[in-house]
Structures are given as structure tokens and as C-alpha cells.
Amino acid sequence: MVTEERWIAAQAYEKSYWQNLASQIASGSQSQLGWYAWKAKMMEEHLGNRLTSQQRSLVNVLEIGSGPIGIVTFLNWGNRYTLDPLEEFYAADSTLSKLRSQEVKYGKGGGEKIPFESGRFTVIILDNVLDHVHTAGQVLKEIHRTMARDGLFYVAVNIHTTWGGFLHGILSKLKIDRGHPYTFTKESIRKFLSQHGFAIKAEFINNYKEAKAEDLRSSSVKSNIKAYTGLSEFVYHAVCSKVD
Fold first, then answer.
1. Which residues have a Cβ under 8 Å from the Cβ of 38 and sit 6 or more positions away?
2. What 3-state class would DSSP assign to 150?
3. Beta bridge partners of 125
4. What sign results for the dihedral spanned by CA atoms 195, 2, 147, 193?
5. Phi first, then psi: what are they for 40, rounded to 5°?
6. Domains of the chain, residue spans
7. Which residues have CB under 8 Å from 230's CB, separation 6+?
8. Cβ(163)–Cβ(9) under 8 Å?
């Protein structure tokens, strides 16, 4: 668990990010968050045939830490819900809120206390969230509680190499990387999921060398430094089932 002060700093960073992005969208200098549609398509590919078309049309699906729009906005599925601590801010921003779907129920809250009954959801999504939260273990505990016995948990999180994880842990504690209170490696995220009652059914891991090369090509000095120091992040995706 990170301190309350550390989590508040991370939320302030997150809010600042979305305020800046909303301004860019309003001015026409930034596309309208098309990566959500891309992420939704990728998630469906990762799930494969684990849900039939009929099941997808009937499921209750929850996305935790969805941001202003969320992956669920681009899923043609049954009952779709989101949960995000910054929901009031997103809803009040006309640029962000107009990109939403009326078919999705957007809610305020954190994953540490999910306001739904046990076993409610067939699918729970946690995409690029676990390293941002206040209490990561409690988030997974609540996901386990609210997930149906035969449900699926889809998680994506930025990870580091062993060396990169060591460095990032120092930067996080020093609040140099304000937006990411937690640090994960491939080994630690696998262990963390298992410790909290999840069995990994499939995993998809992006290539570290490709992530490093992209950081080297970037015009951002920060990205260049990440590449040279071994701090380049790459994404870990997993489809998990619930273990009682």
C-alpha cells in the first residue's frame, strides 16, 4: 500500500494529464482518443473464444479506472459500467464527456471499494491502472469478490525489466515518477495475481527491446533517458479466472 499523500499526488498528476489532453482535443491538435477503440479490439482478440457472441450480448462488464471514456464504450456488449475516482471531473468537462456513450453507466469510485454486490460481473477490466492505485492488493481483493465464479478478469499493466524495476522503485519513492506509485516486473505481477486468487489463463507480453527502441526514436528527452537507463516500460496483458 502507498501512503495517502502519495496516492493524492498520483491523482493530481492524472487529472493534470486529462486537463491538458482535453485542451488539445478542443483545439484540434489531438485526435479524439481513438486508442480506446484500439484497446477494445485488442482485448477482444486476447479473450479469443472464451466468450461467445451471445454471452457478450448478455454480460455485466465493469471497467475500473476507465478514464473519461473507457474501453467499454467501444464494446458492443451487454450491461457496461465504469468506475473512476475522477468521474466528476470527467463528467464536468464538455470536451471529454461528449465522447461518451449513453449506453454506458459511468460511476465514481476506486477499485479499493467496488459499490456492487459479490459475483455481479462476468468480465472485469483493469487496463493501465494497477500501478496507479492507492492499495493494489485491496483492488484485486474487491475484483475477486465482485467477479462471477466463472468470470474473466482482464488486466494490462506497465512492467519493467528487473533492473528497470529496481530503478523505478527508487524514482517512485522519491516521487520523481508521480503517476506510478507501484512498480511491477513480469515475475512480480504474476506472483501478485496468484497471491490474490487469480489463475492466469493466457498472457501477452510486449517486447522490451521494441519499447526501448521506440523511446530512443522519440523526440522526448524524457523518453530517451528512459531508454538509456533501462527504464523503458512494456505492457503485460493477462486473461485470468477466479480461484476460490
1. none
2. strand
3. 63, 154
4. negative
5. -65, -45
6. 4-242
7. 161, 163, 164, 167
8. no
Grid coordinates belonging to 124: 472485469
Q: Report how far residue 238's alpha carbon sits from residue 97's, in angstroms, rounded to the nearest whole number.
A: 29
CATH number for the region 4-242 comes to 3.40.50.150
Q: Residues 180-231: pLDDT tens digits?
A: 678 899 999 999 999 999 999 999 999 999 989 998 998 988 889 888 888 8
Among 137, 146, 131, 114, CA closest to 7: 131
Element (H, E) at 164: helix 162-173
First to last CA, the chain: 24
Cβ contact 124:143 at 8 Å: yes
Contact 151, 183 (CB under 8 A): no
Beginning with the edge strand found earlier in the chain, give each strand of the sheet holding 79-84 in spatial order.
Answer: 104-108, 79-84, 60-64, 121-127, 147-159, 234-242, 198-205
* Grid coordinates of 243: 480461484
Do 208 and 232 meet the contact criterion of CB atoms below 8 Å apart?
yes
Q: For residues 89 and 96, what is the distance between their CA atoms, to the nearest angstrom?
A: 10
Most confident listed range (42-46, 97-101, 217-221, 226-230): 42-46
Say if CB 84 and CB 17 are below 8 A apart. no
134-162: per-residue pLDDT in tens? 899 999 999 999 999 999 999 999 999 99
Question: Quick one: the chain helix, strand, coil %, rounded to 5?
Answer: 45, 25, 35
Torsion of CA 33, 37, 43, 47, to 10 degrees: 160
Q: How many residues does the chain have?
A: 244
Distance of CA 72 to the CA centre of its chain: 12
Three-state DSSP state, 206: coil
